[in-house]
Amino acid sequence: MTQGAIDAREFRTALSCFATGVTVVTARAANGEDCGMTASSFNSVSMDPPLVLWSVTKSANSADVFRHAERYAIHVLGSDQQDLSNRFATRGIDKFDGTDYQRDEHGVPVLNQHAVRFDCKQWAVYEGGDHWIVVGEVCRIDRRNKESLVFCEGAYATTNPIRTTNSRDQDTTETGSPVDRLLLYNLARAYRQMSQQFHAGVRDSGLSIPQWRILASLYGKVSRNMQDLQDRTFLDGESLSDSIAGLQQEGLCQLNDNGSTVSGTDQGHERVRHLFEHGQQQEQAAVGENSLNDLIDQLAEVVKNTQSE
């Protein structure tokens, strides 16, 4: 491997392979203004004393506030708080307007909904390139019984346990355990096992999972606007732009209308055609002699009946 200048887009893509939790950090500025931002660069430092760290880009509007704040709160978000994460990652808005929060005894705005909250006092601040590395001493922990939100490969995700064994000798229909007859349990197992098999084929074809989602959404050389494509691929804006730039260099998609829409190409269509065929074969093999269309219709009904208002 040759050494040289690291391409920023490639660096971000490589870093996105490391799954992180999602946090919102809040503090009160010296002028009394409430400040908050979304941060995924959160980690533990020490057990004695209890120290944690996170980082804030120097160009952030609230960078100076967090550098000099004596107290702040780090909220680990729950899996149902994607909107809150997006809100606190957006510039130029009142992030606390309509947000459920209160102030603690130090005047720090604290969110009332979270998976875990770490109340911290400033320990140290270090310079780290274009970021400030902020180290805090944890003074109090507020933990809720809530599943945490995860961010990986440019998309939000949730944490699900992975079985340590995949023995075919286990017949889950005759174990006598009620959980084995729960739809949710079997959906989770089916999704994990099928997605592992299918995604292995995607990666063997030389595509990343985000690239596959983009090309699959553009299959048939259709055109989509950026917001529609972002919704379909579950990618954040920056990750979507990076992936599209790489695919366009290979001729697999094409930006149109000054970058507001993306369309598929002949090369992109052919690149994923065999993956669609492979996926259909895999699905038919999974359902055996049962009707695949009937199963899809039943699952679509489950999706419709469980959607949030």
Order of helices and strands: HEEEEEHEHEEEEEEHHEHHEEHH
Per CATH, the superfamily of the largest domain is: Electron Transport, Fmn-binding Protein, Chain A
Walk across the major sheet and give the strand order: 3-2-6-9-10-5-4
Quote the CATH topology of the largest domain: Pnp Oxidase, Chain A
Distance between the termini: 51 Å
Largest sheet properties: 7 strands, antiparallel
For the record, the count of structural domains works out to 2
> What is the name of the CATH class of the largest domain?
Mainly Beta
Rg result: 23 Å
Beta strand %: 25-35%
Oligomer: single chain
Summarize the amount of helix as a percent range. Answer: 25-40%
Please provide a written account of the structure:
By secondary structure, this protein is an alpha+beta fold. It folds into 2 domains: about 20-150, Pnp Oxidase, Chain A (Roll); about 180-305, Arc Repressor Mutant, subunit A. The protein is built from 9 helices and 15 strands. The chain has helices at about 10-15, 65-70, 80-90, 185-205, 210-215, 225-235, 235-250, 265-285, 290-305, and strands at about 20, 25-30, 35-40, 45, 50-55, 70-75, 100-105, 110, 115-130, 130-145, 150, 155-160, 225, 255, 260-265. A 7-stranded antiparallel β-sheet has the order 3-2-6-9-10-5-4. β2 and β3 (about 35-40) form a beta hairpin.
Notable traits:
Pnp Oxidase, Chain A; 2 domains; 309 residues; alpha+beta; Arc Repressor Mutant, subunit A; 9 helices; single chain; globular; seven-stranded antiparallel beta sheet; 27% strand
Task: Write a brief structural summary.
With 309 residues, the protein is of the alpha+beta class. Helix content is 36%, strand content 27%. It has nine helices and 15 strands.
